């Protein structure tokens, strides 16, 4: 199956110019997503996940810019598209669910007005048809009395309800690709499960590709087909989600998994990765994780490339290996 989205050696910089190098928030990132598949893009805050999503949609604000690599969407080079062509892609064929729904919703317009405008921006349908589609989308994400809530303003919704509205807007056109940036963070467990189910159904029935940006490994284990782990702007491990989460190779991936509370025994302290993610302007020489890694040696002062292993890859010369009984 050919990939719907193909990101190759993506580099996104902030600042720079005038002969000075920029700061690489995304550095040499490559991955593919096929139709009907879900890729979980995971890592701590500041790892470059959201900037990667913004780069795909060309939503970077200055001084951010794509400094290298290619982004192919259904065979089209995103970098070569005009702004008008990007406007036609955004919302219709590529949708994004932002972490903060107030980035999406206009506080002075009703939810119904915003959703109807979103429908009619890409589809020439009547206002009645657009309103029906909007009402159905709100019901799909679990908003009660959707007909009445179309007349409400964003401030009349809770944070979790606003997030559900943002997800409903993303689903209006059944896009080919959805980039979801921490879309269930503000939702309770019941609604979270409902949203995950709807995304799974959308991928399976509508052949929609999904890039799910999160730090929650539990959600990724339930939803994603493949996983890409980011640290300090680089991919450190990729592969099938079941294989990576049960048998990680990179020490950072293993540390994230061990930090999940369910992995710890009752009465024992929670595992944690020592230290903090370094700022991108003060990354250590070589492997960015070496100052927090218990397996680091002098050899780690040279940045390793991604090492292939069957259907996965990892960026480490001292990989974690399961002990064979």
UniProtKB/TrEMBL annotation:
Superkingdom of the organism of origin: Bacteria
Keyword Zinc-finger: no
Keywords, comma-separated and alphabetical: ATP-binding, Cell membrane, Membrane, Nucleotide-binding, Transport
InterPro entries hit by this protein: AAA+_ATPase, ABC_Ni/Peptide_Import, ABC_transporter-like_ATP-bd, ABC_transporter-like_CS, Oligopep_ABC_C, P-loop_NTPase
Alphabetized PROSITE patterns for the sequence: ABC_TRANSPORTER_1, ABC_TRANSPORTER_2
MF terms in GO: ATP binding; ATP hydrolysis activity
GO biological process, one term: transmembrane transport
Lipid bilayer topology: Peripheral membrane protein
GO cellular component: plasma membrane
Domain ABC transporter: from-to ranges: 5-257
Subcellular location: Cell inner membrane
Entry similarity comment: Belongs to the ABC transporter superfamily.
Protein name: ABC transporter ATP-binding protein
Organism: Tianweitania populi
């Amino acid at each position: 199956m050919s990939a719907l989205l193909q990101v190759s050696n993506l580099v996104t910089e902030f600042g720079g110019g005038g002969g000075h190098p920029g700061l690489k928030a995304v550095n040499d990132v490559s991955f593919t997503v096929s139709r009907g598949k879900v890729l979980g893009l995971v890592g701590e805050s500041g790892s470059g996940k959201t900037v990667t999503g913004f780069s795909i949609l060309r939503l970077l604000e200055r001084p951010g810019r794509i400094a290298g690599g290619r982004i192919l969407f259904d065979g089209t080079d995103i970098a070569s598209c005009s702004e008008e062509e990007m406007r036609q892609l955004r919302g219709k064929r590529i949708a994004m669910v932002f972490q903060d729904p107030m980035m999406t919703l206009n506080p002075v317009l009703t939810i119904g007005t915003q959703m109807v405008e979103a429908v009619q921006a890409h589809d020439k349908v009547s206002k009645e048809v657009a309103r029906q589609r909007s009402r159905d989308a709100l019901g799909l994400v679990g908003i009660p009395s959707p007909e009445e809530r179309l007349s409400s303003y964003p401030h009349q919704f809770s944070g979790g309800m606003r997030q559900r509205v943002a997800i409903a807007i993303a689903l209006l056109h059944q896009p080919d690709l959805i980039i979801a940036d921490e879309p269930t963070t503000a939702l309770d467990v019941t609604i979270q499960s409902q949203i995950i189910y709807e995304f799974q159904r959308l991928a399976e029935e509508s052949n929609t590709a999904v890039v799910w940006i999160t730090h929650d490994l539990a959600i990724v284990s339930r939803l994603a087909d493949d996983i890409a782990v980011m640290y300090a702007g680089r991919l450190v491990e990729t592969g099938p989600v079941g294989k990576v989460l049960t048998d990680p190779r990179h020490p950072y991936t293993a540390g994230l998994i061990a930090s999940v509370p369910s992995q710890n025994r009752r009465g024992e302290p929670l595992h944690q990765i020592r230290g903090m993610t370094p700022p991108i302007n003060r990354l250590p020489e070589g492997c960015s994780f070496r100052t927090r890694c218990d397996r680091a040696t002098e050899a780690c002062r040279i940045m390793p490339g991604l090492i292939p292993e069957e259907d996965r890859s990892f960026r480490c010369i001292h990989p974690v290996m399961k002990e064979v009984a």
